[in-house]
Amino acid sequence: MSVLLPRIVVLATGGTIAGSSANPASSAHYQAATVPVSQLVQAVPALADVARVEAEQVAQVDSKDMMFDLWRMLAARIGYWSAQDDVAGIVITHGTDTLEETAMFLHLTQACPLPVVMTAAMRPSTSLSADGPLNLLDAVRVAASPVAVGKGALVVLNQQIHAARDVVKAHTSAVDAFHSPVAGPLGFVQDTYVHFSRTPGPDQAPRLPVPAAWPLVEIVASYAQPGRVGIDAMVAAGVLGFVVAAAGNGSVHETLTAALVDAAACGVAVARSSRTGAGHVAIPAPPRPAGGVFVSAGDLNPYKARVLLLLALAGDPSLGRDAARLQALFERY
């Protein structure tokens, strides 16, 4: 008696996994987002042994050019497919450049009961040692696995399973470019074996709505002898929030601090992350923006912190005037 395989939907957005080059020996010089998802699926015959795969070309972009409209479209397609009774899981193919940001968006907004698994590739599909085919196969294996249910949004690359909230790109070109620097991966995929070594921490926070309109939130960096002209200009342009890529454990240069104090006095939300790449920025008790003591983004890097601040300010633009409530939000998510 034959067993009916689970139905998995692959939502494609482009990226290097769909890239191509005239020179198979080159993994650095190629055009991203040229190969249709139908071709990507056909290139992995082993998928037919794992699931009934249905592919949809949602977009075809280089992820360096990611836009909020595509995030909104992805959320809508996840909602559509997860409402189909016979769909067991969803896989999203994506470029690596902004994958960690889209992953954070999905983590914060999607309450999908099915596994939602992102995957990508560091080498184009035409490369002699393309990593995309195995990454796609492993992502479908995870999405089809009952043990992945209830784990939240996931990212699968290089045989590792990561939580969407935690994963970051940590290398320009290596196939093991993605890491979860604070918590480590959730598990791994080895051929047909899908294993979770740990589960994400309990997440009781409600999902945040996908905005109809997005506030202006920017990232500024602290370094030797910065100027304040950029901050002042952005406040004048209507920016509602800043994430500071601060030095070390959230240290901000005095020149930037003065500019950010002035911004906070105008109701602009300010949160400090770290430019170090790992670690937790100490939480002030309490935050006092008027005194230059700004909210901590915890262990979120500047790019993930910006996604959270975008969604939070879209729902409540007044958060910049309530540092205690803003700090509580970063601690909750």
From TrEMBL:
A GO BP entry: asparagine metabolic process
Positions annotated as active site in the UniProt record: 16, 96
Gene name as annotated: ansB
Species per Swiss-Prot/TrEMBL record: Cupriavidus metallidurans (strain ATCC 43123 / DSM 2839 / NBRC 102507 / CH34)
One Gene Ontology molecular-function label: asparaginase activity
Residue span(s) of domain L-asparaginase N-terminal: 7-199
Listed EC numbers: 3.5.1.1
Family membership noted in the UniProt record: Belongs to the asparaginase 1 family.
CDD domains in UniProt: L-asparaginase_II
Stated name of the protein: Periplasmic L-asparaginase II
UniProt cross-references to Pfam families, sorted A to Z: Asparaginase, Asparaginase_C
SUPFAM superfamilies named in the record: Glutaminase/Asparaginase (SSF53774)
